[in-house]
Specification:
It contains 8 helices and 5 strands. Strands 3-2-1-4-5 form a 5-stranded parallel β-sheet. The model has no long low-confidence stretch (mean pLDDT about 95). By secondary structure, the chain is of the alpha/beta class.
Length: about 170
Amino acid sequence: YTFLEHRGEIKGKTVAWIGDSNNVCNTWLQAAEIFDFNVHVSTPPGYEVEPARAGLYGTDHYEEFPNPMDAVKGVDLITTDVWTSMGFEDEDAERKRDFEDWQVDGEMMRAAGPDALFMHCLPAHRGEEVGAEVIDGPQSVVWDEAENRLHTQKALLEYLLLGRVHR
């Protein structure tokens, strides 16, 4: 919704996912199938989208890139998440080493399309998965994304608890 709010319809656009192929990456891949947009996925070796999951999404809407700079060329949106998700804290030092070339920085944003946005599901670690110049920069819509998530979560809770949507 945040992309729609800032740039209009996402159909036919391209999103670059940079980082770990975690739950958020998988959600982007699912959304691409539903809303008909493309996802470029770039992960360090050993952190790729699992082949079984890749089969769920087909290849019509996503492509993997070993080099993150290739993944972001001309895209409409760059998004990422923390390098060490909950449950993987014991791997933190190894992940920081493995992911160091996957930080979304100013160079990556300049390689994207001229109106590209930056999104992150938060909380973020400035200096790790994203540079401060990006998350605090003019292309970042992370706070709007967080606000939209709050309203979506409230609506989902209402529906799950009451079995209806308030009108």
